[in-house]
Amino acid sequence: MARDSQKTKQKILASVGRLLARQSFGSLGINAVAREAGIDKVLIYRYFGGMPELLRAFAEQGDFWPSSEDLLDPADEAPTSLAEAGAALLTGHLRELRKRPITQEIMRWELIERNELTDELARYREQQGIEILKRLDLETAPTEKTDLPAAAALIHAGITYLILRAKTADVYLGVDLTTDEGWLRLAKAVQKLSTLMLENAPLSTQESTDD
Amino acid sequence: MARDSQKTKQKILASVGRLLARQSFGSLGINAVAREAGIDKVLIYRYFGGMPELLRAFAEQGDFWPSSEDLLDPADEAPTSLAEAGAALLTGHLRELRKRPITQEIMRWELIERNELTDELARYREQQGIEILKRLDLETAPTEKTDLPAAAALIHAGITYLILRAKTADVYLGVDLTTDEGWLRLAKAVQKLSTLMLENAPLSTQESTDD
DNA sequence: TAGCCGTGTCACTTGCTGGTGACAGGAGGA
DNA sequence: TCCTCCTGTCACCAGCAAGTGACACGGCTA
């Protein structure tokens, strides 16, 4: 019909996104994508090569991973203390991931399947996370008293899990995952935990004393 | 061959467990189970009715969910403070879930699919968790200062996510998920976070003052 | 005008899945 | 002895998936 390969490619990629937003990776196949896009599946093979290459192209064209600016930039004023900055980043993670159903679906997929693409996506995120830790000066070796990277990993992972879980569960340990009130409770708890852990931490700022 | 329906049923259920331990729920089907068990699939229909009923039978015959005794009972002495008890329960969750690959697989499944069985399993766990919170006297309404159930949910979820993630990732925010050292770091961080949050909490023990 | 290439359509094979009907053969009771 | 029920085997169906080969159409250039 359209006779425009660029538009067709875009239609195909958009269909992948639509399918992912609606269902899970499990039900994502060549036929399903072709049906959703309203084109013949042979075009998917022609333009992308196959499913893995299509997924790679899809991963490269979308902005699925919040940048560190996304994590911080809302109406809040700039954080003035380490504790504030850490809390802001983690609540930013909560806010941004909750907005991105496709990102969530990719992360669910990563829990199930391991392949070249999932590894690459995870490596990218890992690197981004480490850099943020570095910028906060938290990537210090675990001290006797507090292992800040491990604590941050725990809270970060907790946020992630609760968001992923919210698709198939309504409540977690009594916290309502279906209402904004529940998520506000969680955001406040994130803030509280972050500040507790960072205020009581042996800060390794400029004048760190190696006790 | 064997002509013993009880044994055949056991073979079938055992095959479900073996398949789950090896692969994921996605690749679990009638044909796969029959192949693994070395029997004809028609027997699965005859003895169980179909896949949903087989899964239900499987869920009922195994001890996939650590009891609250499992969570506490190791060599540790009994916790004497609220903070110690909370920390012990959460690290117990870490230790016990890590030991149970099939339980992990079920929880991965719950992230993807929602049906009668997953709902029921989640409800069971939710109830168990709430009771533990009650026993700790933490199920107080969220106070101005600290929302203990929400904080507990976060840490609990964080532990869960990291364990599930460890099947397909090696590292999370710099923490190694493949070695016992990494998990020790996480366990210590859990302990630290729990005690921080519970020591600073407005305790609602017997003589709670409603400030 | 003739031919080529890019785009899209159609038809087909292969291989898997879930599900079912028909049958074989042994154990035990009437 | 015959009959019946329980257990297990075999053969088959329909449906859907991935992947491929052949062809139709239209625009562009020589």
- Which residue ranges of chain A are poorly predicted, with pLDDT under 50 across at least 5 consecutive positions? 202-211
Helix content of chain A: 55-70%
> How many strand units of chain A?
2
Helical element count of chain A?
A: 10
- Please report the distance between the alpha carbons of the first and last residues of chain A: 73 Å
User: Taking all residues together, what is the mean pLDDT of chain A?
Assistant: 90
Q: N-to-C SSE series of chain A?
A: HHHHHHHHHEEH
Give a description of the structure.
The structure is a homodimer of 211-residue chains. By secondary structure, chain A is an all-alpha fold. The first copy, chain A, has ten helices and two strands, in the order αααααααααββα. Chain A has helices at residues 5-22, 30-37, 41-48, 51-61, 68-72, 82-98, 101-112, 116-135, 148-165, 180-199, and strands spanning 171-172, 175-176. Chain A has a two-stranded antiparallel sheet with strand order 1-2. In chain A, β1 and β2 (175-176) form a beta hairpin. The longest helix of chain A is centred in the middle third of the chain and has 20 residues, at 116-135. The radius of gyration of chain A is 21 Å and the shape is elongated. In chain A, 38% of the residues are buried. The model of chain A is unreliable at 202-211 (pLDDT under 50). At the A-B interface, α7, α8, α9, β1 and α10 of A face α7, α8, α9, β1 and α10 of B. The first copy, chain A, binds a DNA duplex (30 and 30 nucleotides) through residues 1-5, 8, 29-32, 39-43, 45-46, 50-51.
